[in-house]
Each structure stands twice: as structure tokens, then as C-alpha cells.
Amino acid sequence: MTPQEGSQSNLKRETIQRFISAFIVAPFVVFCFVSYNSLVGLVAAIVMISAGELFFTTIKKYNTWLSFTYTAVVTTYPILYGIAFREHPLELLSIVYIVGIVIALSRVRNRDVITEIYFAYSTALIYIAFLLSFFIPLYDKFGPAVALLTLTIAWAYDSFAYAFGMVFGKHKFGSYYSPNKSWEGFFGGIFGTFMYIVLYQLIANAFFHSNMRLSFTLKVMIAILTGLLDTFGDIFESSIKRHYNVKHMGNLMPGHGGMLDRIDGLLFITPVVYIFLNMLYK
Amino acid sequence: MTPQEGSQSNLKRETIQRFISAFIVAPFVVFCFVSYNSLVGLVAAIVMISAGELFFTTIKKYNTWLSFTYTAVVTTYPILYGIAFREHPLELLSIVYIVGIVIALSRVRNRDVITEIYFAYSTALIYIAFLLSFFIPLYDKFGPAVALLTLTIAWAYDSFAYAFGMVFGKHKFGSYYSPNKSWEGFFGGIFGTFMYIVLYQLIANAFFHSNMRLSFTLKVMIAILTGLLDTFGDIFESSIKRHYNVKHMGNLMPGHGGMLDRIDGLLFITPVVYIFLNMLYK
Q1: Do the Cβ atoms of B146 and B138 come closer than 8 Å?
Q2: Mind telling me how many Å the CA of A221 is from chain B's nearest CA?
Q3: What's phi and psi for A172, nearest 5 deg?
Q4: Interface test mutation site (partner A, options B59, B111, B273, max chain A beta carbons within 10 A)
Q5: Its pTM surpasses 0.90
Q6: Which of A155, A187, B128, B259 is 20 to 30 A from A173 (CA-CA)?
Q7: Residue B282: strand, helix, or coil
């Protein structure tokens, strides 16, 4: 085998791994949408794994104890929000933030690394816990069909963008932090997402007594928003990985990298879809 | 003059400067509590100045344009929250956060400094804009007398802690980031804050038709909370200053340092007082 052939066969193996991993994990995730409480549990589990990955990539080298403690602190946000403080997320966020800062102040006596610890903590709290927890009001207000659609359009966009990019990708964005993204992948991803929304609505209404009536324009707009936000969310996460010189945040799902690599785009999509639907149906 | 006497006379001059600055600025600040809109303006102005100081201390050396832009982005939070989105602070926060991240991604192509930029941005958004904006619901729900009390207990604690610490301070906390804090200052500050609350309630009820009925226990609890939170808020800000090797974040008020040096404790006090009162009077 030439090196070229070797790298191509690696790529092929990675693609197959991606498929298999996805088909094993997806049903469990989808099943959690059956009730409000299991949805809260799912959000908390994803926040815990992703935040843990972020802390292990960024600050574990300074303080292992803090990485574990911060993972727990950040995970309290979706749990308490979902179970006890559905009406008071703002207050909850402020308290969790202050508690985390006080923990850092009392455990870390090193002025060289303290701001990096604040960076990791704030990013885990806002980017991961705060943004993903928009699934809680999304589910609460619009029901499981819309919440599951929000999750799966991120999957659909990722998959189509990946496939179109692999096959047709020639014109690169020129993104500094994520140089392999191509316009072909971007537009292919948006097109695929649109087709997916059409199919999803048909199936949800035909077989699951759902009552979704997203107009053509709305479907197009959601697909475009998904493409834009997924791309930015992904580049944001890539920029952190570049800083720390790692390829993946974790190694949870073979072919996908870590949990955070998997949900980076979703984190920007969820609040915006929620706000968008709220503006239309209030 | 011996060096000792020189440093004492410097300290004396700084104390006098503190007094004069405070007596010039305080009336303007207090006056803004006259109406809801002027309160929102005050919060926005304080956020703008403090966030600007933070960005100029931390990331201006990498990108001046970004420091100005981020100051503006962060300031939109209290303005839009106070004026247009009183019911939707959560959604507003998520959008402001995403906008700021996208701006960094499109303007900064340097993987060495990108996480430091995220640190500065998140800290300005959560620590300064998000936490200080609790004044808006505080004013809205509990009225001007309680909001002004929240602001001025932070002043009272700072002043009494400073005075008691100067005169009696012998036993230091041993705080790594803020080594000059003493237990005498801490307890003197709490005692002074308690006396201040007693006086404030008397005056507010006697002359301003207020109807405050804080019990003895409640006054003591608020004074203790103020002491704890002010101390942690102050050490948090000090830890950032230590990292950047600066004495003050700015030089707005002679004797006080910058705006952020002045409000560092208040930022932790405001949300907790709001939550505390909500738990008691709902």
C-alpha cells in the first residue's frame, strides 16, 4: 500500500466506525425522549460527559480534583433546572457560577493558571450546560416531537455535510481553526437537513399522532440556521482543540471522537431553534 | 521622611482621595435610582465601563478592535434585558454569548491567544453583565429602597472593612490572591454593615415613606452574606489582576482604582440578595 492508499483505507475505516457507533448509540438517546424526566436525565448525562472531557483536556494537568469537582458542579445546572427550579434558571445559573469561582479560589493558588481555569469553567458552564439545557424548556413547551427534531437535525446536518464534503468537497472555507470544511459540505448539509425535516414531519404525523405543520419557508429557514450554527459551534470547539493541540476532546464513540466533538454544533442550534419557535408560536 | 513615613503619608493621601471621590460620585449614582429607566441606564453604564476595563487589561494587547466591540456586545445584555426582554433574559444571554463567540472566530486567527479571549469575554458577560443585571429584577420586584440598600451595603461593607482593617488589622486571612485582608477588617465590615442596615431602614421609613421591615435576624444574615460574598468577589477580581500583574483594572476614581475594582464584591452580592429576598417574600 502507498501512504495515500493507507490514509484512504483509514478514512474508510473511520467512516464505517462512525456508522456503527451511531447506530448503537442513537436508539438509547432517542428512547430518552419518551418522558420529561428521562429527557432531563439525558441532558444531564451529556453535560456531565462533555464537561468532563473539556476539563480533562484543559485543566486536569493542573488539578485532577478540580476537574472532577467542576464536572459535578456544572452538571448540577441541568439537573436542578429540570427537577426543582424550572421557573428560576437565571438565579440557579448565578449561584452555580459563584460556587464554582469560590471553589477555584480556595483550591488553586497559582496566578499563572488561574485564568485558564476560569476559562475552562465558564466555557463548560455556559457553552455546554447552559446552552444544552434549552432542551428542557423546548421539550416542556413544544413537546417530544419538536425536541427530538432539534436533536436530529444536528445529526442530519453533520452526516450530510460530512458525506457531501467527502465526495464533492473542493472549495474550502479557509477557516483557520477547522481547515477541512468545504462549501460543498455546507450546502449539501443544508439540503440534506431540509430533506430530513420533510421526512421527519411526514413520519411523525403519519405514525406518531404528531401535529407538526412546519411550512416550506420555515423548513428552509431551519435548515439554513442549522447549517450556520452547526458550523460556528463546530469551529468554536475546534479552536479550543487547536489551542490544546488535541484532535478530539475524548474517545467515547469510535469514529466520532468524544461526546463534545459530537454535540459542538448542537449547542448553538438548540437555543436558537427554541427562540425561533417561540417567536413564531407565542 | 523615612520610607515608612513616606508610605504612611501615601496611604493617608489615598484614604483622603477615596473619601473625596466617593462623595463626588455617590450622589449621581444614588440619583439614578429615581426611576426604572434611569436604573437600567446606570447598570448599562457600569457594565460598559467595567467590561471595558477588563478587556483593556486582558486582551487589548492582541486586538484593540475586539476590545471595543466586546465592550459594546456585553453592554447590550443589560440594555436589552431592561428595555425589551424583561421576560426573556435566558434567551437573550444565549444569543449574546453566541454572537460574541462568532465575532472572535471571525476576527482572531491565533490559536495561542484564542482561549484567553474566550476567558475575558465569558468573564465580562457572566461576572459583570449577567450578575450586575440582577439589579433590574431587584428594582422591578422590591422597589428602589431595597435596590439602593443592596448597592449601599456593598459600599458600607467595603468602607468599614477598609477602616477596621487599617486600624486593627493584625490577623491576615492568608489569601494567596489578596494577601492584605484581615479578620479584623472582615468582622468590622460585617458589624458596620449591620449598623448601616439599621440606620438605612430607620431613615427610609421615617423620611421616604418606605415600608421596610427587615427583622433583626434578617439584618444580621444580610450583613454576614455581604461580608462573605464581597470578600470572595474581591478575591476573584484580585486573582485576575494578579495573573495580569496589574494593581488596578482602571483609574476611574482616584483612590479606588477602576470601576471594576469598586464593584467586584457587589457583583456576587446582588444576585444572592435578590434570591434571598425572593425566598422570604414570595
Answers
A1: yes
A2: 17
A3: -80, 150
A4: B111
A5: yes
A6: A155
A7: coil
The model's confidence at residue A3, banded by pLDDT at 50, 70 and 90, is low
DSSP per-residue codes, B254-269:
TTTBSHHHHHHHHHHH
* Residue at grid coordinates 456531565: A48
- Compare CB distances from A105 to B91, B111, B232 and report the shortest one's residue: B232
Distance CA B278, CA B160 (A): 27
Q: Under an 8 A CB cutoff, do B97 and A131 touch?
A: yes
**What one-letter code names the amino acid at B121?**
Y
Residues A39, A40, A43, CA angle at the centre, nearest 5°? Answer: 85
Which of B119, B134, B235 is opposite residue A118, by nearest beta carbon?
B119
What pLDDT does A74 receive? Answer: 97
B52: CB partners within 8 A, 6+ apart: B67, B68, B71
Measure in Å the smallest separation between the Cα of A238 and chain B Cα atoms.
10
Distance CA B82, CA B107 (A): 29
Give the pLDDT confidence of B113-171 residue by residue, as tens digits.
999 999 999 999 999 999 999 999 999 999 999 999 999 999 899 989 989 998 888 88
* Sequence-distant (≥ 6) Cβ neighbours of residue A144 within 8 angstroms: A33, A34, A39
ipTM above 0.90, yes or no: yes
Residues facing A172 on adjacent strands: A182
Supply the mean pLDDT for chain A. 89
Q: Among the ranges A111-115, A132-136, B160-164, B204-208, which has the highest mean pLDDT value?
A: A132-136
Which position has the higher pLDDT, B163 or B19? B163
**Chain A residues close to B278, C-beta within 8 Å:** 91
Q: Chain B residue with minimal CA distance to A178?
A: B105
Mean pLDDT value of segment A260-264: 89
Q: What is the distance between the alpha carbons of residues A224 and A229, in angstroms, rounded to a whole number?
A: 9
What is the SS3 assignment for A251? coil
Contacts of A131 in chain B (CB under 8 A): 94, 97
Query: Chain A closest CA to B205's CA: distance in Å?
Result: 29
Contact between B74 and B51 under an 8 Å Cβ cutoff? The reply is yes
Label residue A5 by pLDDT band (50, 70, 90).
low
Q: Which residues of A touch B100 (CB under 8 A)?
A: none
Q: Is B94 an interface residue toward A (CB < 8 Å)? A: yes
Kindly state the DSSP code that residue B59 receives in the 8-state scheme: T
**Cβ of A188: how many Cβ atoms within 10 Å?**
23
What's the confidence (pLDDT) of residue A14?
74
